[in-house]
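Severity: low
Component: inverse-folding endpoint
Summary: output formatting inconsistent between runs
Steps to reproduce: submit the following structure tokens with default settings.
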């Protein structure tokens, strides 16, 4: 069977619960023991009433009562062990699914991450997994016993009195039809609920991340209204689902109670006519209650299944998505690490886009060279940089690192050659030292201070009371933009990579700090290939090669002085920043 046919909660359970078949078999065996003892107790109770209470046989009452206590003890032990292993299996299932989702998301390229979106991936890894995990928990602790109890109860009821058992033939179909109608309407609502949870998650993340912008532009009221709309949509849908199930449980309970009344009515007539012992009527009532309670337990499970099914489909959408950027089947290994980078007639377009973002890109750079990429906003500078570490794959042409097409290299091998400072410098929660050691786990404190000195960050880190052990909040929220950039640069330097890429990494620095940092970098990276994306002309004017981009194509290539003569676009950029004197 193809993987696509296994979509839904059943497919997910079949795939992810297989490793735990031994525990499931144990739980089933214990549930079977539990069901048998439950079914046996009413028979013992009937015998106790018929042969002990009615006849006044004290010895029989004591012996049978003691035996019933022993059966009850077996029932309690089996129940405790079954619940323990059922819960342990359900928790292990949730752990494995969350781990599988995390590992799959880690393998995604930027295209898949953009397709699903961060809020949705968070919801799928948390709320959706929890919904399916709860179904497994209920299934192993409660629901698997329901069919055993129901079938056993029917057999025992028929054994006691066939005509009186006809009540079951009336009540069960009515319950089944009603449950089917409710679940048919509930499933689409559960699917909608999960999407609305994504939306609430998205709005909440945006508000928390952009709280300073919201306050600065006095948009608090607008954001409150935006959240209220998303929250109201989720609340309304949840209320519609809740109303459905609010009607279902009382209705099923009504059917259960009416069935009990009918059995007591007709059974009492038989007892009065001496057609049935009173103990048998008591046992029959117990069996009917067990049958109908089993149906009710299964119904509670079915209440959870529609939402879990929607969640399982969303989980499997992630698990079944194959990354567009993967390791080649036969990667090129042992390629010399020189740091040479070459673009050969590269074209790139985003998935589903009609026009390419980059086209006809060709240039090369090597060790000891500094290549700068400039251009107006939206010209494709960052997209071009993202092609080197294969965050995206080219749609035409090729990108070569050390003479090998990056698509023919193992991703880990490629990434080891590259030290990247992204456009948005991101720091992890932890300490300054733990962030810098992302570049080199074995780096000593002395080496970290040296990298900070090169990145012009030793001064502000030295002013922190804890120094290298100073706390860093998630995303580097407790440091300024310029400090984040300098820490990110120090982290990249710690990697000692042959290819150093700085994607607009100096934008938050003042001119003096920028100049000092570039001078220190020049001494440190003499044997590395340095690629700088920048908006400031002052940052790139001393580069050995400057690439000028406009609308995704190269419109100028050369040194600063050469481009002032040959490139109108570059002259406009210089004039806008340095004035006509800078052009002259």
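Observed output (run 2 of 3):
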């Amino acid at each position: 069977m193809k993987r696509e046919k296994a979509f839904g909660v059943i497919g997910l359970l079949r795939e992810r619960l297989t490793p735990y078949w031994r525990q499931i078999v144990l739980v089933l065996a214990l549930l079977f023991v539990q069901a048998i003892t439950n079914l046996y107790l009413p028979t013992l109770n009937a015998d106790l009433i018929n042969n002990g209470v009615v006849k006044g046989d004290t010895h029989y009452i004591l012996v049978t009562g003691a035996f019933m206590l022993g059966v009850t003890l077996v029932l309690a032990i089996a129940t405790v062990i079954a619940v323990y292993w059922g819960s342990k299996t359900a928790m292990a299932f949730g752990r494995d699914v969350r781990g599988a989702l995390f590992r799959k998301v880690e393998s995604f390229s930027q295209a898949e991450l953009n397709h699903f979106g961060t809020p949705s991936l968070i919801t799928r890894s948390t709320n959706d997994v929890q919904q399916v995990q709860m179904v497994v928990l209920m299934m192993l602790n409660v629901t698997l016993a329901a069919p055993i109890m129901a079938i056993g109860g029917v057999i025992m009821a028929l054994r006691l009195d066939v005509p009186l058992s006809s009540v079951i033939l009336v009540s069960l179909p009515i319950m089944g039809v009603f449950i089917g109608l409710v679940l048919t309407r509930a499933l689409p609502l559960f699917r909608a609920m999960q999407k609305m949870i994504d939306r609430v998650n998205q709005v909440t993340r945006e508000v928390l991340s952009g709280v300073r912008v919201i306050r600065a532009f006095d948009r608090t009221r607008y954001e409150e209204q935006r959240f209220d709309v998303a929250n109201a949509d989720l609340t309304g849908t949840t209320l519609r689902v809740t109303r459905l199930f609010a009607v279902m449980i009382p209705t099923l309970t009504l059917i259960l109670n009416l069935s009990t009344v009918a059995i007591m009515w007709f059974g009492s007539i038989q007892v009065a006519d001496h057609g049935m012992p009173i103990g048998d009527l008591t046992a029959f009532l117990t069996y009917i209650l067990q049958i109908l309670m089993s149906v009710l337990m299964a119904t509670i499970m079915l209440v959870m299944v529609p939402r879990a099914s929607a969640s399982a489909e969303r989980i499997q959408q992630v698990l079944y998505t194959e990354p567009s950027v993967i390791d080649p089947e036969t990667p090129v290994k042992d390629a010399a690490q020189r740091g040479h980078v070459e673009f050969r007639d590269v074209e790139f377009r985003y998935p589903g886009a009609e026009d390419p973002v980059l086209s006809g890109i060709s240039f090369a750079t090597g060790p000891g060279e500094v290549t700068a990429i400039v251009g107006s906003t939206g010209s494709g500078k960052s997209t071009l940089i993202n092609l080197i570490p294969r965050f995206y794959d080219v749609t035409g042409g090729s990108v070569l690192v050390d003479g090998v097409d990056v698509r023919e290299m193992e991703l880990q091998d490629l990434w080891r050659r590259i030290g990247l400072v992204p456009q948005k410098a991101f720091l992890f929660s932890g300490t300054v030292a733990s962030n810098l050691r992302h570049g080199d786990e074995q780096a000593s404190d002395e080496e970290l201070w040296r990298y900070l000195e090169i990145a012009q960050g030793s001064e502000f880190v030295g002013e922190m009371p804890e120094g290298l052990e100073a706390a860093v909040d998630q995303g580097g929220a407790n440091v300024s933009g310029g400090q984040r950039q300098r820490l990110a640069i120090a982290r990249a330097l710690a990697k000692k990579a042959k290819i150093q890429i700085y994607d607009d990494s100096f934008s938050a620095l003042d001119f003096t700090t920028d100049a000092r940092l570039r001078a220190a970098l020049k001494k440190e990276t003499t044997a590395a290939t340095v690629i700088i994306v920048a908006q400031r002309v002052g940052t790139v004017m001393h580069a050995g090669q400057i690439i000028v981009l406009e609308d995704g194509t190269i419109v100028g290539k050369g040194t600063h002085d050469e481009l002032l003569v040959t490139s109108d676009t570059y002259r406009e950029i210089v004039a806008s920043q340095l004035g006509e004197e800078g052009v002259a």
